[in-house]
Amino acid sequence: MRIAIFTDTFTPQINGVTNTLNQLIRQLESRGIEHKIFAPKYDHEADHQEERFYSLKLFLYPECRLALPNIFRIHDSLSKFKPDLIHSFTEFNMGITGLRYGKKHGIPTLSSYTTNFTQYADYYKMSMLKQPIWEYMRWFHNQNELTLCATDEARKLLHRNGIHRTAIFSRGIDTNRFKPIQRSEELRRSLGVDGQKVFLYVGRVSFEKDMDILCKSSRQLQSLYGDKVAFIVTGDGPYLEKCRQLMPGNTVFTGFKMGDELARLYASSDVFVCPSSTETFGNVVLEAMASGLPVIGADAGGVRNLIKDGQNGLTFKARDEEDLTRCMTRLMENESLINHLIKNGLSFCRSRSWKTIVDGLVQQYQYVVENDASSKSAKSSQSA
Hints:
Oligomer: single chain
Helix content: 40-55%
InterPro entries: Glyco_trans_1, Glyco_trans_4-like_N, Glycosyltransferase_grp1
Organism: Anoxynatronum buryatiense
Protein name: Glycosyltransferase involved in cell wall bisynthesis
CATH architecture of the largest domain: 3-Layer(aba) Sandwich
GO molecular function: hexosyltransferase activity
Radius of gyration: 22 Å
Domain Glycosyltransferase subfamily 4-like N-terminal: 14-177
């Protein structure tokens, strides 16, 4: 089986889509499944399995790039590669290009739904765009044989908005990288948080990630516990300077981290906080659990499907800083609860290997390819 993958975001960008793609590529390679990536061009060299195209940053979501694909180059590449299936991970220029090629040449197509752009419109006071966004999403996804969602929550959202041919492609966690043994007391000392309870945030630093709520709750917690508590913000984004102003003075800003360096940051912290109510999945929640941290997350979006309140984490009412502060306070004072959440979080992650997740995805691929072949055979018989 040969898979052509189209995406408007890819390495070196750091986000959930890129992380998923990198893991998917490793799993496809381990199975001997041929693949080719069509993605925006960044300031680095592409490898032989990638086709890169000039791109511009996308308004409201700079991690996605508005690529300007060379249609002739794509047609030449795909005519040589001869894919059995085209998978569009994003809905913009690259995704549209893959979809159109598939329709023109009779190749079955899948799409992925990875970002709730209508919620972003609310955050940026552009609610008038919500209806046009959903109209576009219906136009794009309903042309595919199947649309993949990371959670049941996202799937239900699509169904409510007229996108019905859906299936689940969840996300896994690399427990060989993210694990408690990565904890480093030397790293804590170098960051100046030795001897303090450290609350960690990892992700894009932007308003739609509810960073304003994290800032308010962190200040409330600092007012209660003073030097007993510290905060680490790992990531970058348009809200970073505002965040520097609003977070308590004992906050460390590390910038983007990845790989083993990121894994050590997770394991060397004490509590993970995911304030965002807009996640379609929440990869960072799994990374934190696997690293041996108790997690706190908003009871909304994809995070709701990962955290069972009081079992493998704590949830708070979305965009409610008082409720978030309450959760953070509980984990300042209740060691037995912390140990309970850590134990269950680690157990939860052990059941979510990328191998198992991609096994399910490959089955979806095979289903779409075989269903397309059966459909073509039936049409051929009818016309004979």
